[in-house]
TrEMBL record:
It holds the Pfam family FGGY_C. It comes from Carassius auratus. Keywords: ATP-binding, Cytoplasm, Glycerol metabolism, Kinase, Membrane, Mitochondrion, Mitochondrion outer membrane, Nucleotide-binding, Transferase, Transmembrane, Transmembrane helix. Pathway: Polyol metabolism; glycerol degradation via glycerol kinase pathway; sn-glycerol 3-phosphate from glycerol: step 1/1. This is glycerol kinase. Its EC number is 2.7.1.30. GO terms for molecular function: ATP binding; glycerol kinase activity. Coiled coil: none annotated.
Amino acid sequence: MNGTMAASSNRIMLGPLVAAIDQGTSSTRFLVFNAKTAELLSHHQVEIKQSFPKEGWVEEDPKEILQSVYECMDRTCEKLTQLNIDISNIKAIGVTNQRETTLVWDKETGEPLYNAIVWLDLRTQSTVERLINKTPGRNKNHLKHKTGLPISTYFSAVKLRWLMDNVEKVHEAVLSHRAMFGTVDSWLIWCLTGGKKGGVHCTDVTNASRTMLFNIHTMDWDPELCKYFDIPMEILPKVRSSSEIYGLMKISSNLKSGPLTGVPISGCLGDQSAALVGQMCFKDGQAKNTYGTGCFLLKNVGTKPVMSDHGLLTTIAYKLGRDKPACYALEGSVAIAGAVVRWLMDNLGIIQTSTELEKLAADVGTSYGCYFVPAFSGLYAPYWEPSARGIICGLTQFTNRSHLAFAALEAVCFQTREILDAMNQDSGIHLSQLQVDGGMTSNRLLMQLQADILCIPVVKPSMPETTALGAAMAAGAAEGVSVWSLNPEDLTEVTSERFEPQINPEESELRYARWKKAVQRAMNWETTEPVNNGNEETSIFSSVPLGFYILGSMFMLIGAKYIAAGQK
């Protein structure tokens, strides 16, 4: 009897709960937070398969993404029931997602028309080169005054253009007005609010600002940008703020998560913006770095956009309500961070699990002069150099897999240092510490290395799920929900761990200079002048070094034959 009473009184004490769907590049999570204390009560995670149909191509199955969300919701609801927590206390759901990843589906059948093209994907490199070549002065920043972004394979517009040009189903659906375009947030919200039976087709300003079709000043789709990429505006989702009720959940009653039907979806933020909110970086000048598949450093610059002169992006940080002002951020994006761990595991097989990497690197405590530039998808900020490729240099007979593991961790830290330097130059204000989050922050050696290489303290919150927390905060604070206060005095104090620099700055600078040298070696490796074979594949001659090698070999063979003929 007492146990039952205690359980029911616990339920009452918990008060309103808010959930978040966190759909990332490598996994999906569903998490439930206490709206009053920001405590994480329960969650579930499911890995997402990536496919690599050709070199440089990265895809995911939209149906698998959606199914993983249902599975995470079901399992979390089961766990909550076991904890004697009432699911009906969930008052709102927020969505946060991998940004730029591009989907097109049929609004009549609800079926995806192709796999999702992931943000890392490089198939559009020749499209990008073609676009840059037709700009005045071949300027990759030609659209930056409107978008805050360089013309790059990274953003959604070129992926959408590729789908319309190369996938017959997409082309036909666009012509017959059945196509819907969206980033992952749009696909999930549309499906979860009814899909082909009245689903809401929308996105938020943070995700829209990553497409190259959105004007960051007018805060809407830009007709001139759509014309530039030749994309019909009717296929685009409606742009909303990051915190408002978009629609209500519609879930089959035979699922464990059935009771979530009718709960409003009222928060939506691209994953890096969500982490900025979750880290409570609401003041101008506050910054955070997220270590996920890639690495993303965002700095809040307030309600006026700041354009970078040092290779950073200007992006929307958040807009927390229809009538609230938009806040902007400067962002440094690194394509490969956690992805390098996966590469060492899956491609080289030198580790079996990601936790092994820390032990392996700690065994030697140095890279022994080995430097690893993991430019698998070219280099993002601050270089924006799609022709760069991965390189490992400084090898000796003494180098072993432990040194390579250490060099891989250092690479993540050096890339962050490059972005931080650019950010300090753009703003003129130097960060005194770096707030961090994301999966890789559980690696304590990485955190210490980061402090050593930046020469400033690194601060890690004890609750690592700041991306999901940010989405939950936006959802709970929405008008019509109002269970989560974002007033500074109401925000709970975050407990954190601090890593202080432990090496002298001279050594740090020396290692950083060697890294910069290695980066230069990785530059201009691939160029892909399009070869007209109809599907954007490139010939062997598109690699300049390989082209010279093959042509040189041919001339040598012809020359040798000629000499031999003369000697007869």
